[in-house]
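Complex record, two chains
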Amino acid sequence: MSVTTLPTLALAQRQPSWLVRLFDYKPFLIVMCLAPAIGLLTVFLTYPLGLGIWLAFTDTTIGRKGVFVGFENFQYLLTDSLWWNAVFYSVVYTGIATFGKFALGFWLALLLNNHFPFKSLLRAIILMPWIVPTVLSALAFWWIYDPQFSIISYLLVDVLHWRTTNIDFLGSPWPARFSLIAANIWRGIPFVAISLLAGLQTISPSLYEAAMLDGASAWQRFRYITFPMMMPILAIVMTFSIIFTFTDFQLVYAITRGGPGNSTHLLATLAFQRGIAGGELGEGAAIAVSMIPFLVFATLFSYYGLARRKWQQGESND
Amino acid sequence: MTDTAAQPAAVATTPPDTMAWDSGLRRLMMIYLPLGCFVLILLFPFYWMTITSFKPNAELMNYKEHNPFWISSPTLAHIKHLLFNTAYPRWLWTTMLVAIGSTTLSLIASTLAAYAIERLRFRGSPYVGLGIYLAYLVPPSILFIPLATVVVQFGLFDSPLALILVYPTFLVPFCTWLLIGYFKSIPYELEECALVDGATRLQILRRITLPLAVPGLISAGIFSFTLSWNEFIYALAFIQSGANKTVPVAILTELVTGDVYQWGALMAGSLLGSLPVAIFYSLFVDYYVSSLTGAVKE
């Protein structure tokens, strides 16, 4: 509408001009531009977030509006060994998987930072685990972890003769837990590696040249140049990674659904089992809400923990 | 596999006379060998998925007589079963529809929002930007239970429209931040010129800013498409009937039946479900990498 009025000034001053002028009025335009995004986020993010916290304090079930019950849901959770199991496994899962992802991802980023042929092709291939739907690659892992026809067991038993029996990946608690962590690390490496590679490429080569002239060893160059320079981007990537690993759902739901014997439930899968599958919306919401303190703590820890190091570096340098 | 790669390296250790040999070997051991292992491990599940999809059931369950790493008599039976005996085409169609719908919606919303935040510059615009960024940090696992009740309230339960409306909650924050970065790189002078020439703000957005931000729009678009294609938890919680499910949910809930898993069909389904994003990805690799790293750097 506004476009058609531009060529003829006379037309613009007549009938449609108030509309054009309205859309050129900055406050109105700002509101109009922000309305779709803010509207969507308010209705489908802020409101549900508040509603979720409210639901956690009610005894709502599917089909029945609940009443306020105070901290009852949370008191129940504190006595619920399944919830404690889920908290324990969520922390272990996040801790080991994050460590694995960052150790291996950083290593991969350092490797990719070298010059070699077909580098961009390799970089493209490496992102594949991250691009493909997680559930679908999780299914492939499920098949790889099959008790009878696992290809890893085949490799270890029939090809390498290191073992005599098949590995029971998903049949007992600890092997199942570590199998899931391995799958999570596999999926997370590409994101970490490519993000950190972008950070590595911003470090000026002159820093390394200066350090080499001063006789710094490869380890010292890594320890005193690469690592401190990577701190800011590490902090951000790690914050993201911790949040989305702690609240992970897909991998566990696809591979074990919390089994065997509820040993691999994460808080998210437990919330789903109680809230949606079991219909206890209030209790499910309470489990979901119980993730928030962990998330806030993890975010603050990874962000400020790492950023503080950066400030120290800055102060000592200036 | 790794063993065979290590053997030539071990052989090469014997003549370490010249510097060139030494550094070449060092490079091999320090860079190519670990890189080879990484690529092998990162790609193996896909290889395994592909090879399983084309294996006849007899080969699938018999490692003694057939080498499991290769197919002796490839078959299309699993894919045929998937396409003609299940609702797989329907699931693909639903997923496509949901992905395109939510991507379009989020692109429109986030382009306007990013333009307002970055270019219309009002008091408090950084805070609005920060608020939208914080929305990205709210994981779906916390939201899906209350969102399920919201979806029921709106009468959208079991409808793909619910997914189209809900997916922007994680797409809009991402796209907005990506586009803010792109708008920043467009010189402000261009807009000032147009303002002086009497163009309206909307004309500036349509004629000047958007054409210059096309790479950013492509990045945001393909990224949103991929994220919505891969989304799982909302689709699992909000869709009940078999026909309306998206591919990731349908494979897990409709194809996994009973105690004997149809691994051939499952892997064929996973392969077909991964293919659209994989093809999309191979066409736009650079956009993916730039949006991934761009979003992190912002």
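Note: Residues 230 and 253 of chain A are 34 Å apart (CA to CA).
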